[in-house]
What we know:
Layout: E1 5-7, E2 12-13, H1 16-24, H2 29-44, H3 50-53, H4 61-79, E3 90-94, H5 100-109, E4 112-116, H6 120-129, E5 142-147, E6 161-167, H7 175-185, E7 189-201, E8 206-209, E9 214-217, H8 219-229, E10 232-238, E11 248-255
Parallel strand pairs: 1-8, 3-4, 3-6, 4-5, 6-7
Antiparallel strand pairs: 1-2, 7-11, 8-9, 10-11
Amino acid sequence: MEMGGLDSDGRKFKNAEEMWREEVGDGDSQKKSQWYNKGIKYWQGVEATMDGVLGGYGHVNAADIKASEDFLNAILAERFPDAGRGRRLVALDCGSGIGRVTKNLLIRYFNEVDLLEPVLHFLESARVNLAPENLMVSELHKAANFYCVPLQEFTPDAERYDVIWVQWCIGHLADDDFMAFFKRAKVGLKPGGLFILKENIARTGFVLDNEDKSLTRSDSYFKELFNQCGLYIYKMKDQKEFPDELFAVKIYALTTEMPRQGNRPRSKRTTNRPAIIR
């Protein structure tokens, strides 16, 4: 990526390649393992609560879920007959944490939701939060599988998912593992299925968080990676009603086939914010 960026200490990088060479090395598996282990260690020290997983901003949950639900409803209405009500829908929640997105959104629309989370105490909390007695959904909707596996090591079952939801976790992957994950995960989509990626957006280039080893990418950075993954933007939307001090957030719906011209979204400028939501 020929775009500059900086880290959370203010250090500037000429481009992403320079940053990645320093952080994960050039084919140095040990150094890359250290990168991922530091990220996991950070989250292992975070309490398994709404406020914990949202970096002290638990109050944004309602606005986050509302925007995501509006986006999901539009996708289901456009992609599936009768908005998917006539078929058994299955979703994968990547970086699921304590099951916040699954409980507040996905489980109401999907008959089965699998959760993927590498931090064990988050996943254990999700099991409790998503136990049938703690849900206000019919018995036709359930949390099916709980995988304690990091994104870079996960391969889904073939054609299991209508939607693979990836929120506030892809920043922990180095670019090569980002692309490898999506290429593997394509296999897990049913025909017509798609990815929904919701992430913090840097104004330009990237911002590296030295504390939890995550990267906030710009919209153009994401689009370059999508292109290299063979993914197409079907629809995208900016998150509204978040505190001004936070990064901008964007939601992308990504497909493996080129959308018709009428579905192509217009790009919008986003603004950088001086803090990072977890």
